[in-house]
Design the sequence.
C-alpha cells in the first residue's frame, strides 16, 4: 500500500499542474466521440426525426413555414453570423493566423493550427460522404446550399477553428479570467454559428449537434497531441 502513495501523489500533482483549458479539452475528448457515435446511430435509425421536425418548425411562423420567427432584421443578422463558419471566413482566419505564427517564429503552433483546421475540414467531408444525409426539406431554406447535411460543416469547422485558436490564445494568458474569457468567446461563436444553420433551415438540429461533438472532439485531440510540442510563450 505504501508504494501506491507516491504514484497517487504524482498523479494529483500532474493534474493540479495542468492548465484549465487542458482539463476542459480532455473532458471533451473523453465524451465527444461517444456522443457523436450515439447521435449518428440514432439519426440513421430515424429516432431523431420528431425532434428535428419540431425544432425546425419552431423557428418558423405556424401559418407560413417560409417565414422565420422574429423581426425582419433578424434574418439578415443570422445570415451575417453564419458566414463566420463558412469556408471563406474560416480559410482566411486560418491562413492569416498561420502566417502570423510563422512570422513570430512559432512554427510548431502554426503547424498545429493548420493541421487542426484542415484535418477537421477533411474529416467533416469524409463523414458527410459516408452518411450521405440529404438536406432538410421540412422548411424552405433561407440561404442556398448544395452539399450533404450530416454533420453540419459550419458547426464542425467553427468548433474546430475557434476552439483551436481559443486554446492557443488562452495558453498565452497569465490570468485565469483572461483564459476563461477567451474560451467562453470561442465556445459562444461555435454555438451561435451552429444555431444559425437551424434558424436558416439548412440543417437538422442533429446535424448541428453532430458537428459540435465531432468538431470539439477533433480540436481537443489535436490540442492534446500538440501540447507537448508547443513551447511556452
Sequence:
Amino acid at each position: 500500500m505504501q508504494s501506491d502513495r507516491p504514484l497517487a501523489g504524482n498523479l494529483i500533482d500532474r493534474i493540479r499542474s495542468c492548465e484549465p483549458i487542458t482539463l476542459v479539452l480532455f473532458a471533451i475528448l473523453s465524451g465527444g466521440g461517444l456522443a457523436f457515435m450515439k447521435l449518428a446511430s440514432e439519426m440513421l435509425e430515424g429516432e431523431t426525426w420528431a425532434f428535428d421536425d419540431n425544432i425546425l418548425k419552431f423557428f418558423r411562423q405556424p401559418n407560413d413555414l417560409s417565414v422565420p420567427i422574429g423581426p425582419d432584421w433578424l434574418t439578415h443578422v443570422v445570415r451575417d453570423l453564419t458566414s463566420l463558419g463558412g469556408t471563406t471566413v474560416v480559410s482566411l482566419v486560418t491562413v492569416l493566423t498561420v502566417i502570423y505564427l510563422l512570422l513570430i517564429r512559432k512554427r510548431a503552433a502554426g503547424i498545429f493550427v493548420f493541421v487542426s483546421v484542415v484535418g477537421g475540414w477533411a474529416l467533416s467531408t469524409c463523414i458527410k460522404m459516408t452518411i450521405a444525409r440529404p438536406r432538410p426539406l421540412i422548411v424552405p431554406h433561407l440561404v442556398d446550399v448544395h452539399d450533404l447535411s450530416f454533420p453540419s460543416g459550419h458547426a464542425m469547422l467553427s468548433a474546430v477553428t475557434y476552439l483551436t485558436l481559443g486554446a492557443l490564445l488562452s495558453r498565452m494568458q497569465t490570468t485565469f479570467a483572461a483564459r476563461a474569457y477567451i474560451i467562453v468567446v470561442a465556445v459562444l461563436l461555435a454555438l451561435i454559428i451552429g444555431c444559425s444553420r437551424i434558424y436558416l433551415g439548412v440543417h437538422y438540429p442533429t446535424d448541428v449537434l453532430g458537428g459540435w461533438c465531432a468538431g470539439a472532439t477533433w480540436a481537443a485531440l489535436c490540442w492534446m497531441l500538440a501540447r507537448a510540442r508547443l513551447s511556452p510563450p
